[in-house]
Amino acid sequence: MHLGLICPELSGHLNPMTTLGQTLQQRGHRVSVLARLDAEGKVRARGLEFIPLGKNEFPRGSIPEQTRRLGELQAFQALKYTVNVLKMGTEVVLRDGLEAARNHQIEGLVIDQLVPAGSAVAERLQLPYVYACNALAMNIDPACPPAMLPWKYQPGLAGQLRNALGNEMLRWVAKPVSGLITRYRASHGLPPRAGLGEGTLLAEVTQQPEFFDFPRTRRPNYFHYTGPWHHLSQPNSDGFPWDQIDGRPLIYASLGTLQNRVLDLFEKISQAVDGMNAQLVIALGNADQNAPEIASRFAGNPIVVSYAPQLKLLQRAALTITHAGLNTSLESLTQGVPMVAIPITNDQPGVARRLEWLGVAQVVLPAKLTVNRLRSAIQSCLSQPSFRQKTAALQAEIAAIDGCAVAADIIEQAMFTRKRVTSRN
Question: What does the pLDDT look like over 210-226, one tens digit per residue?
Fold first, then answer.
């Protein structure tokens, strides 16, 4: 089949989605990514075809400017800005996606859960489609706190009432996107929402392993846990100063590629590690800041780089200090590395609380972060054997899962079942 992939043009979504795309391509499918121009380089580097959307209003460089702005924000302001970014992407998909899919003879779509506009395109074209959760699965469940709120898992009626209130609040925050899609669907004679498990939506896959979730009371039969969709080949790390690694326990700190301009958090991280018998490596997550100059602001002489060969460092690390992005968290578990999670926005609070629930991380919320509190969390993770033991157990579980293969199996089965039924009709 000729499969089209649609996801936000952000590294945390584009990296796992294109890795999944490579797996599908290796099975003989033609795979194209429908996206704005800033995604083209990464898509083609993965050997996939690229179909541009929104070329006029989103020239190259538009999305890095958005991410630069997002990288300066935290908490609710970052969430609101993210919704606005998603709204702009929604408008492009709704306007250009249909003609792009039709003109390039796309036969099925794999759509990021955060781009629900893709489902309207698929249903207008009567194309089979699958949702893919590159970030934390956002499916509402009465027993699970909303992923974007820093709430712990709380079973029972009180927790369910709290969760319902949080979900209503997030529905209100997401109205700029959901309202746009609802109006579009109505104008084209589609039902108000994508028919989950009905119509042309065939399945939903998430790169979360099943253990990496709170106990759900609602798990529809089209929803499937798989495992990490990691691109295991390492980026060129020749520029990393490996000669400066001195043999002390290595602490790797990264706030990802979005929340990477919150320098006061990096400063507190350096202050918390200063004086410990450990070596700190800080990855800023962007190339347009002067790493040596920024390093001069940090305590304890850490190694500071724009980008780091993350997997290679995690193979040596004793601890990860992370914003609790799903990809970094899963990569740390894959390498058996405990974490201190500082969730900043979006689904990061939900990821952090799951790590805490699993016993593999300490969580320090940014609003309550002090150097002493952070140092205590770091020391706890390094000194208590239970963190390393529980992480090692989950590392073994992940090693037994080929997440991309499982997800590709589900996608193929769903798509070909639909294709056979359509052919008979």
Answer: 999 999 998 888 999 99
Asked whether 26 and 121 are in contact (CB, 8 A), the reply is no
- Dist CA 22 CA 25 (whole Å): 5
Residue linked to tokens 């001069």: 296
The single-letter code of the amino acid at 370 is: T
Tokens coding 74 = 């935290």
Measured CA to CA in angstroms, residue 76 lies from 32, 34, 83, 141, 144 at distances of 34, 29, 11, 22, 20
Domains recognised in the chain with CATH numbers: 2-227+401-424 (3.40.50.2000), 242-399 (3.40.50.2000)
Alpha carbon distance 24, 174 (integer Å): 32
Q: For 95-121, how does the pLDDT look when each residue is reduced to its tens digit (9 = 90+)? A: 999 999 999 999 999 999 989 899 999
What is the C-alpha to C-alpha distance for residues 112 and 105, in angstroms, rounded to an integer?
20
Q: Which residue has the tokens 């929104």?
A: 54
Both tokens assigned to 66? 């958005």
Please choose, from the candidates 172, 169, 114, the residue with its C-alpha nearest in 3D space to the C-alpha of residue 326.
Answer: 114
Angle at 36 between CA 418 and CA 410, to 5 degrees: 25
Please state the pTM of the whole predicted model: 0.91
State the pLDDT at residue 198.
46
Angle between helices 75-103 and 157-173 (to 10 degrees): 60
The pLDDT score that the predictor gives to residue 87 is 83
